[in-house]
Amino acid sequence: MVKRYFRAAYLSFLVHVVDIPPRFFAFLIFIIFLLFPITGPPESILLMMIIANLMAIYGASWDLLVGRTGQISLGHALFFGIGAYATALLYVYLNLQPWATIFIAALIGFVIALLIGFPCLRVKGPYLALVTMAFPLIMTGVVYYFKDITGGERGIYGIPRLFPFLNYNQQRFAEYYFTLILMLISSIIIYKIANSKTGIVFLSILDDELASKACGINVTKYKIMAFAISGLFASLAGAVNAHILSSASAASFTLTISFMPVIITIFGGIGTIYGPISAAYVLQILDRYLLYKVINVSTEWRTIIYVVIVIVLILKWPRGIARTAVDKLKDLEEARPVEVVYKKMKKKEESSGGSIHAPS
Amino acid sequence: MHLLEVEDLTKSFGGLIAVKNVNFNVDEREIIGIIGPNGAGKTTLFNLITGYLKPDSGKIRFNGEEITGLPPYKIANKGLARTFQIVRPFRHLPTIANIMVALNSPRGKKRIEWVKTPERKAMEMLEDVGLSEMMLEPAENLSHGDLKRLEIARAMALEPQIVLLDEPFGGLSPVETEYMVKSIQRMHLDGHTIVIVEHKLHALMKLVKRVIVMHYGEKIAEGSPEEIAKNDKVIEVYLGKVA
Predict the structure, then answer these.
(1) B154 touches chain A (CB under 8 A)
(2) ipTM of the complex
(3) Smallest Cβ distance to B93: which of A204, A210, A216?
(4) Residue in chain B nearest A218 by alpha carbon
(5) Prediction pTM value
(6) How do residues B110-163 score in pLDDT, each as one tens digit?
(7) Do A213 and B76 touch (CB under 8 A)?
(8) Rounded to the nearest 5°, which phi and psi values hold at A185?
(9) Do B90 and A211 touch (CB under 8 A)?
(10) CB contact, 8 Å: A210 with chain B?
(11) Are B197 and B42 in contact (CB under 8 A)?
């Protein structure tokens, strides 16, 4: 009896839910994100979501480089930090508005990625990973050495917020919407690039560099292109982050920041672009809300529990949570029983005005 | 002027001389074979011509223009395409996307007539080698024979002036070999210039008009298949010395 109801529910789920295109789900989630501040969340939750928005951009930029072209970068903090310092220095020395400095900082990240790309991409695989890892460390040294300009260990603070004309509470809301839209635009751009003809060439380099060359592809050019685009978005995230926290410090160049997109991307599903974007939110909520607010364990335990959960989930779904979810949905659709297909056909026939031709 | 001229090409790896003073020419619309026992330097010769290795000395001219030491992608864009002895498809890409990569190169882009989209052109290329049914299948799901044909289709997507085929019959069943021979014959009839390195002499001798024999990096004979089959030196290399 119960089994029959369950089966009926399952079938109606297949007929009515699975056929909804994934775009609809994405849209639904976006609506939730748009409306979520209406519930009047505390500032900490809002800040958590703002950071999640930025991490989504940062993670997606890493995924475009590593998941799509296979050029492993373990020093993405370089771009994140350069974005932060560029925007701060542009404010301090040229007194530019945040609106301008954010985008100039992104462009500076782009140019630096181009410059670094040339020597870096001559090495491959683990060697490239090590070389890229060195750059943020070098930058830390540079920041400490030029104390007068960069503020040394204290960093630069007092960078204006993005919306200085609003009062304190309104500012967070405005920042939330700003980062949300920025995240949306950036991820659409990254996704479009990844799925364009250029994206196919990126994937061919990941699969077999030698064969790409035989196809007449200038592999170095494409690698540097991926590096530069990735650097642009990572710097953008870093620059906005500096304005949110109203400071830029050498903490942006640490290994923690370098490994953040690695964890986000692998957790979400490497090479998918939507993987790191969704994982950024899942991990932020897990860390800052579930463990911090709901369970409220002490800081040391929080890190340990967080890491254990992440490791267990990665071991359980090595292809990433987002990719696994999408695959499960696809399996469900493929495995649907004959009745469902029949019902679908009938539905289509009715809607097309009861044609006399049998559906082919 | 010959289409491809190879002059005194030499390459050594440490103490081993893999290719030693090799000279040969390829004319337009010709189909020639390069044979030789294992380790004769045939694949090294291919890698030298297509830019994957830099020669120690010697010159390679294509269309009268020197291409010695150019990077592989530039040589491919000049119209000198190759396939690999061990298949190198883009395993995670769909079959059609494998062709699209070649169509994204500067030469590939130029060769798409304005009435066609790249997708359409790629579909036609797959139809030519009989892979249109596998169009959306990731290349890793294809059989070895299909992959060999995919490689050829990918090389042909550049619409090259010369195609260098490295062991196109390697690992193929007799039926597949037959199909491959026919495909290559059709390519030749379409006006393409083809150079084949091969071990399967039986299939090769039916195809080519001229054969170059290599042994220990040196060219030891050149001529029509009939001449080569009677050449004492070649028989010695393949079967051992007559006592």
Answers:
(1) yes
(2) 0.90
(3) A204
(4) B73
(5) 0.88
(6) 877 766 788 888 888 888 888 888 888 899 999 999 999 999 999 999 889 999
(7) yes
(8) -65, -50
(9) yes
(10) yes
(11) yes
